[in-house]
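Per reviewer request, we include the raw input and output of the structure prediction for the construct analysed in the revised manuscript.
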Amino acid sequence: MGLEVKEDNTMPKGRAKYFKLSVMFLLLNINSFVVPVGGFSLRSCRISYNTAICAKSKPSLKAVPTDIPPTVKGLDLSVNRITKIQGSDFKNLPLLTQLEIDRNMISQIDTGAFAHLISLKRLNLNNNKLHELTADLFDGLRNLTELRIRSNGIQVVASTSFKSLTSLNLLDISFNKLNHLTNVHTIIQHLPNLKDLSIYGNGFTTFNSWELTNSSLGLTSLDVSQNPFGVFNITTNIFPSLTRFNIGGFHSKQHMKWEVRNTTFPSRVSTLDISGLELAFGHMKTFLERVNSSLTSMRMNAMKYNLTALINISCTIPTMSTLQLRRNKLHFIHSNFFKLCINVKELDLAESRIKNIHDEAFASMQSLKILTLSRNLLHSVPAATKYIPTLEELDLSKNNITTLECQDFANMTKLKHLRLFNNYISALKDCVFKDLIKLQVLKLQGNHICTFGGAFKKPNLPNLTQLRLNGNRLTTIKSGSFNGLQSLQILSLHENKIVTLKHGCFIGLTDLTDLQLQSNNIIGPDIKQEVFNHLTNLRKLDLRTNHIRFNESLLPNPPFSKLSHLQILAIPGQHHRGKALMPSNILQGLTNLSVFNIRNNQLLSLPKDMFNHTPQLQKLDISSNEIMDLSPELFFPIQNLKSLYISRTNLRSLDFLIDAGLTKLEFMQARKNAYSVISKDVMDTLKALVYVDFQGNSFTCDCDNAWFINWIENSNRTQVFDAYNFECNYPPDLKGMKLLDFDIQPCTVSTEFICFVSTTCMVLLFMGGSFIYHFLRWQLTYAYYFLLALLFDSKNQNRQTGNLYDAFISYNTHDEPWVIQELLPKLEGEQGWRLCLHHRDFKPGKPIIDNITDAIYASRKTICVISRRYLESEWCSREIQVASFRLFDERKDVLILVFLEEIPTYEMSPYYRMRKLLKRQTYLSWPQDQEQTKVFWEKLRKALRAEENLCEDRLLLNVMD
């Protein structure tokens, strides 16, 4: 994601374009800014601008990676050691539009390997080892428009290799070993939309038009250069649409045999390159005469013979406008050299070893606008250039020019671009640019300029927008040095030896947007408000790599406080010794600052309120300092921050990010610091993060990093660059091991396993409960009450209470009428027994279970009056259980069961069945026949009178006997 800089409406026309270019340059120069798509960790690649970049991997890839995300639109696998493309390598990349696999060692491609790349438009297979193109090799690439397969050593091409490429526009199959033009016919016969074909350097010795019949009618560009043609024969018009033709570039010992009988070839060619072509002059003349009505651009570089004659022929073509004559060893340009080139607008004479030029060499070129004389041997500006009144661009770079005279550019009133860089100019005279009133770009970098005097003080260059003075020997910028450059937008002064910036040195540069002062010797005292306060429209200021340092924590006059439009600021990486101090108000006034670079300044800390004046900051680089800790408060004023560089800062933790509130942060580079654990809280806080770089940190391989390892492998939000190469530094026995090879299984609890165990237990519990309820519910009920009786008896087992009653009557309230009307009168009234009844003898307010226990243990016997209602009663069950436990505990027969009704065995409670096993004979049934009641009462009396010893014989009490 590039940093978007909005155009200010106050900018003069044309300034925005230059400013945007400079912004892009700084963003690239400060650091490579990678913006990914998606979020994941790749073993050998990174994601940038929808492109997976796996180029120049270390170690080099030997196969196509399998972890490329399916959302990418570009894949760069260049400069690796891949030897084979397999059928499944690109199976999951349906959105891919560009594939770069050049500079590998590919010798084999499986059939159908590209079949799934239905969206692919550009494929680059240059510089591999594909000696043979097999049948249906490019099957499926119906949308491919560009194919480059140069320098592979291709010798054999199957007839159906290219049949699927129906949309192909450009094919470059140069520098192979096709040797014969029939191989080209095999290729292009299946390409109906082919427009641009390059087959140079294939060892063709003959070119016969019939070998390409009906296969090249749509070509507009053809490059057959650097082939050792002995015969060039065209008898039919096989190139009716050709507009660009390159046939030069091969040196042989004998001239080519030229037989072009078709008069229409090359009648439509507008750009012709015959560089290095060795052809008989008569044939060359005939050839050039046939492009008389269409040719606009002619290249005759490195020609050995007849150059002057060829120039004269070319210049007679009325449409000729561009002439390129590089590398021709001209040495001297005489007055008649370009006498016929009256229509030429652009002339390129670079790299031609030119030492001298006749003053009238260009006098006849009254239409010339662009003249290139770079990379020659000129010692001064040739006077011939003064006689070209139409000249708009002049390139004199990389010559041996040492001085510039006042008349060198006289009368060049239309000149817009002047390139004088990389010469030996040491000084500029005040009058040297006096006539260049339309000059826009002046490049003087890479010279030996120590002073430029008053060359820019006067308004001689009212339209100059770019001035490049970098790479010279300037030491001082004096006051008013650029007074006359009212339209200047870009000023490059970097890589000089500037020590001093005088007050007012930039006065007059009210339109300046880009000022480059990096890599000089500027000292701290020169960075004052008075130096920059005139640059009211400045957008970019680069002061890196100077001797600037601050000794105050608070500056009385912040140097940039007047630069309210400044968007990009880079403060130097120090050359001085010792630690640096950053004043808290250094950024005061920079309300629109979006990029701040303060790397390599030997800073120990940053003031917490440093960014209070920069609410628009989006990119911050504080790398290569000695800041061991950062406060979250530092980031409170810059909540729009999107990119953060904190590499090599000795940070021991990233916990400051938890409370920093950087919810918009998308990119973070945090290489080579001192932290060993990345916490979950840190990464959860950075909700917008899509790319992070933790290279070179000393990670701990233990459970503290288990979350981080799992997050790297499974995150679908953030890409962790080069994560598969992170190494363990602790514990010592794991040092050097890859972080992602550490087994985190013992550190984690599997949620899936817990759910499985829980579900299994619930199912088993439900099944067990169902089984118990159906088959064992009565046994469990008995066990419950037995334990309850044991609990109650434990309170009374040491109790020595005397027998207050002869019997405790246990009954259900529904059977109370029988107890009151029948039992009570008979036992108490007639027989004189002392009975205990709960409604009469229980103590009020006392717990009912205690009343029951006390009554049973205070009675010699317990009479249970049993009916169906009795068996259903909870309290009756507890009473019989306490009495039963007393029977077990004291080994006394204290329990008498009286049944008021007949109850089948299967309806009996487990208590009665237990009693039946222990003492089968002691129970009574109330007779239905009134005549039997006497026997019932008599047996009940005997039971109450009987001793409690279980060892003595018992009477059979059942009246039914």
